[in-house]
Design brief:
495 residues; single chain; 29% strand; 4 domains; nine-stranded mixed beta sheet; alpha/beta; globular; Trna Endonuclease, Chain: A, domain 1
Length: 495
């Protein structure tokens, strides 16, 4: 299973995930609360998704969520766990009408209450609501639960003091045994008041109101998965689940309908430069960047095209005999050849014909960006003369191809209180989100400092010296374009 960030309707994406392939799933779906508050990113994909789930009140919301949880149940392994994060608006409906029906009430494990604090309205005439609910269910009778991975310290160490009674640790025989138990710590209860909201964890903030803290996901992932396991988040938002799963050595699948959410999640994973992480992850968008595909590693390109065409890639990098994969149709297997070219001509088609003749096959597929007139003539001729059918398949016929939107980065400066203040203005057609790296290093790659800029305008103070600034724009298809500028500050600012 590949690490993936996937842009799209999670219901449709989930249908493509193989059954019983996921070890753990955590979801934080839109709460059934104020619909305007629930729209975080504000792009077309997210608005369409929220309009769908809000269309017909609570009954429609439950039906909308039910379909997605049903698919999650299918993709979970028999030993898998499911955590659903919700609040008071619909938690009772969700448990009774979705979770108990799909997983069965016998597979209910915990109702976790995540407690937090924060400001309240002085005139409030009721107890302030300061908790969320996280339901935990198992798929089957065998439940993976790594209790030693999530132990927390006992309060104040009182259990291991000389005055400790053995009864304080029911079952221990000696004070030494009590001290050992103290060192190990205890299991967290099902109410979690030791994990702060992200408002109090400044380094994690990426600027949207429902972001969950990494510590919350860390506890869940450590408890219900092992290194190498697959962790799924079907409403991945700003990428907390993929980021924590990756940091803990798990595989991840993150899905979201919002272009901006996937762009921010990607930037967040890119920012994990302090970790010794060599794993590769794929970002699947609604369209593919033509130039990126043209410059991709040839073997990766071949494998990707075969997979997207519905085939099975050839694991061999060399000596594949002209077969980069196969496609199964009605029980028969047909070869696929892929060329990372714009104008595949007659010579390459004849080579593929030779492969078909050698293997006594009557049909094959040839994938490329485009074909010459002589290629089509060759295919027609061989079909008429020997009955061999070769289907010439343009890449754009089965995946949407687009070219990057060019972006422009302008700047101006003024001196304010002796400081050089630079105004940066990025522009480009159909850009949904801007991200900024004010200390760009080509060898390190893009590391976002500003995650949620919808205007393309930033003001920064420049110290003396050289500054390389990069801006990345993400268009409505999820395709990213980056522009850089180098500024020098030494009493004035210039390029």
């Amino acid at each position: 299973m590949k690490n993936q960030l996937i842009l799209g309707d999670n219901l449709e994406v989930l249908k493509d995930i193989p059954s019983e392939s996921v070890d753990l799933c955590y979801v934080d779906p839109p709460f059934f609360s104020n619909r305007h508050y629930a729209i975080i990113w504000g792009d077309k994909g997210e608005i369409a998704s929220f309009n769908d789930c809000w269309a017909g009140g609570i009954n429609h919301y439950i039906e909308w969520l039910y379909k997605r949880v049903e698919q999650i149940y299918r993709v979970l392994k028999p030993t898998g766990s499911f955590y659903l994060h919700c609040d008071w608006h619909a938690n009772a409906y969700i448990r009774v009408h979705i979770l108990d029906k799909i997983f069965g009430d016998k597979n209910f494990v915990n109702e976790i209450v995540w407690c937090y604090s924060g400001p309240t309205t002085p005139k409030l005439q009721k107890f302030p609501r300061k908790h969320d609910t996280i339901y935990m269910y198992s798929k089957g009778d065998v439940l993976l639960f790594n209790k030693d991975a999530i132990r927390v310290p006992y309060k104040s160490g009182i259990h291991a003091s000389k005055s400790t009674t053995k009864a304080a640790f029911g079952g221990v025989k000696t004070i030494e045994e009590a001290i050992e138990r103290e060192i190990d710590g205890k299991l967290p209860e099902d109410w979690w008041a030791d994990i702060f909201t992200v408002d109090r964890v400044r380094r994690e903030r990426i600027g949207y109101p429902t972001q969950k803290p990494e510590a919350l996901l860390e506890r869940i992932i450590k408890a219900s998965s092992n290194p190498g396991d697959v962790v799924l988040d079907a409403f991945c938002g700003g990428g907390t689940t993929p980021a924590v799963a990756r940091r803990l050595g798990r595989k991840f699948i993150g899905i979201d309908q919002s272009v901006r959410a996937i762009a921010v999640s990607n930037a967040r994973l890119e920012k994990q430069t302090d970790l010794l992480i060599n794993d590769i992850y794929e970002v699947r968008t609604k369209a593919y960047d033509y130039n990126k595909l043209r410059n991709m590693d040839p073997f990766k390109f071949e494998s990707l095209m075969v997979e997207l065409f519905g085939g099975i890639p050839n694991a061999k990098k060399h000596g594949d005999g002209g077969k980069d994969g196969v496609k199964k149709i009605d029980g028969e297997t047909f070869p696929i050849q892929v060329k990372q070219m714009d104008n595949v001509g007659q010579p390459l088609i004849q080579n593929f014909i030779g492969h078909l003749l050698q293997n006594k096959q009557k049909k094959g597929f040839f994938i490329a960006f485009d074909f010459t007139k002589t290629a089509y003539e060759c295919v027609a001729e061989v079909k008429q003369s020997s009955g061999i059918e070769i289907e010439l398949v343009k890449v754009e016929s089965f995946i949407p191809l687009v070219r990057k939107t060019p972006i422009k980065l302008d700047w101006s400066y003024e001196t304010v209180d002796g400081k050089q203040v630079v105004t940066l203005a990025a522009s480009g057609d159909d850009i949904s989100l801007w991200l900024w790296d004010f200390d760009y290093d080509e060898s390190r790659g893009f590391v976002a400092e500003i995650f949620q800029d919808k205007t393309g305008t930033q003001k920064i103070n420049l110290t003396a010296g050289k500054h390389v600034i990069a801006v990345r724009g993400t268009d409505s298809n999820g395709i990213e374009s980056t522009e850089t500028i180098t500024l020098y500050s030494n009493g004035s600012v210039h390029e």
